Protein 1
Amino acid sequence: MQLFSDAEAILPFIFKIQNLFCPVLCFYLLRKLRWPDGIQCVKCKSKCIAKDGHHGTDNNRQRYKCECGCRFDDFTGTLFEGSHHGITVWFAVLYLMGLNRSNLEISIELDLHKDVVYDMVTAVRGKVCENKPAPILKGIVEADEVYIVAGHKGNPEEVAKQGREGRRNRLKGARGRGTLEKEKPPVLGIIERGGEVAICMLPNVQIKTIEPIIRSRVEPGSIFNTDEYCIYDRLTEWGYDHKTVCHAKGEYARDDDGDGFHEVHVNTMEGFWCLLRSWLRPHHGISQEKLPLYLGFFEFVHNVRRRGKRLLPALLGLLLGA
């Protein structure tokens, strides 16, 4: 997943922590990532533009005027447009999100109200899910499902529909395989060995539910490794080579070709679930409504293979449409 531009050359200098609080450098980086080939009109894409002063509340936020009559500035058409917070606050939020800090931790670190932080991080996760490329997997892929306890935190109407009072302690998921109605939604994961991953929250685990996801995310002819769960029984009919391991019999890896290498397994996918659980752990009580945003954000983070300040260029590039 390539989400970088010529601005990569300046990143070692720009992304020193102390420089993230300099609005001049932050705006310089934003322009480099948003317009790597030079500033262009947000309406007609023309490069025949002139500077037109600065924003009334921020002297570092440049305004422009195009020959078509369009006026815009550095934030126009971006996630940051209309925000009351400056670019350094946004960069700090993005940096802390890359470190997987919870909303409460971010609000404490930046001295912001928790509701303000909630709106900011939700907007970022939503934009990431909207703009991130959909990975197309091929070769040897593994598929597995996991169940995450997620109710309707902050949504009293949905809680009432479940016939229970609002909880004070941790929500206890129902035993066995879960569904959205049981407040234990399943998450389907497909990972290419040595490549990217695709994860998606499902209403239930049925063949008709997973079929469109698998067909759209995995190239025909790929080799699927799964466990013995029956929802994967039609993979061969859908045009894939299908191999299974039987966990019920204590089989977790198998050597089919006799070369001494146990190539049939779903251990890569199960290892990914450990990473996902660790990523979700600081965010206590994620609701069903927001869980897809957390999953989409982590899919993006995992696929670009970056964390913390090293995630910032890829994250900004995605948010700015670079």
Protein 2
Amino acid sequence: MLSDWPLVFATLILAATALLAPYVAERAKRRAFAPKLKVEHSHEPPFSHKTFVREPGGEPVFYFRFGVTNEGQSQARLCEAVLEDMWLYDAAGKPDKLPNFSPVNLCWSFMHDKPFVDINPHRRFFCDIGHVASAAVQRVELQRVDIPGRHDNPLRFRLDVRLSPFAQANCFVPGKYGIKVSLYSENASSQDVYFIITWSGKWQDTEREMFHELVVQRVNSI
């Protein structure tokens, strides 16, 4: 009978709501409590800082890094920072992208043996971009591949990558460069971060002076 159709329709609506409600609630819960990664950077401590190496002889080294903070309400799992692309700036200030660059993982600070980290809510991890060590240290470091350029200065800005493919650069001679770092996670949104690195090649003993010789600047794009 026609009078039964409103009842049938209402029953179907209630059944559909009962089936979909747990799914909708779970989706809303995941969205509300999802991890949210925020990249932070400043060209000063604790992001960029001076430290010392044990070998040889407690020599100084300057590290340059960025921070990753989980501003969400649940753990961000299997986070990795990948160096995706690199640019060389010519004398006119124009960036030239290196062709066929193979992405490589950057190292998490103090955890160079771990490609992935789990970041709890409100926790910040630092990721190393690279470092400049004293001439004494650089003489004993393995320098496999250099970017073409000036070679009259022995000091290199060495990228802190977990692997150093023989066919591409792993350190910078004096000059201006751009890099793209991509942040990935199992359950958080990925994002891209760009940095411009300007390196004079001149060593200074203090952070204040050295950070004028080697400048790491975060930019929106290259």
Protein 3
Amino acid sequence: MRSPLDHLFAGDLAGWLAAAALRADGLCLFLHVPKTAGTSLRTELAAMRQPDANIGVDYADDSLPFHERLDVAVERFLLGAGTERFASGHITASHALQIRAARPGTRVIAMLRDPVARVTSDWLHQASPRHPGHLAFRAAVPTLESYLALPDEANKMARHLLPAAMLTRPDPVACVAFLRETYAFIGLQERYDLGFRLLARWLGRPRPPTLRENVNEAHAAAAAPDAALVARILASNALDAAIHAAFAAAWDEAAPALEAALAA
């Protein structure tokens, strides 16, 4: 059976809408990879599909390691009333599969971004006053080069979107296949407008995007890495780069047909 993304990347809008169809009370779960235009997307999609929930943790609470706090947040979400029609958070694939098992019919969506731009933006965001704990972060990680030395920050898209077992000896081809089989939609920040219009059509509220939240373009331009640093980012995020390249190629091929179908 063809997956929703198989239909989408064949340029088959009607087939994707049918394969990814949500029940009226079904859950749309947005797995929010940091710095992939997810804040804007989450705000607009949640407004289309109420009631919604944000699966998050208290960054100031250090009583448990972060990932354990996130596990608790997911458990708390699943112990709730279960009436949400949209939910999102900086969760992982294991959490998404756990939620989907508990809430059959859940459709999981996500976004990717060029790894160089995403890594640069993530470092800037964590060092900015908008992020809890930014002062400690800036003291410990004062430069983008020092950020690249943190092993837990490498391949962050893959770490969120793939099961941990696939990350021990990652096979990019197998990773892309898992993503295409598991997710109802995976968009690109670089094709945000088209991706948003497809999702809005999917949710029965066809329209273009209107928000751009949590954007730090001025600082990003000032911190644009040189060629040597770009090479370092790609080397330390090789799996993310391979995944992004595969999906970028798929979007390049499908976009003309999808644009025509939306216009029709």
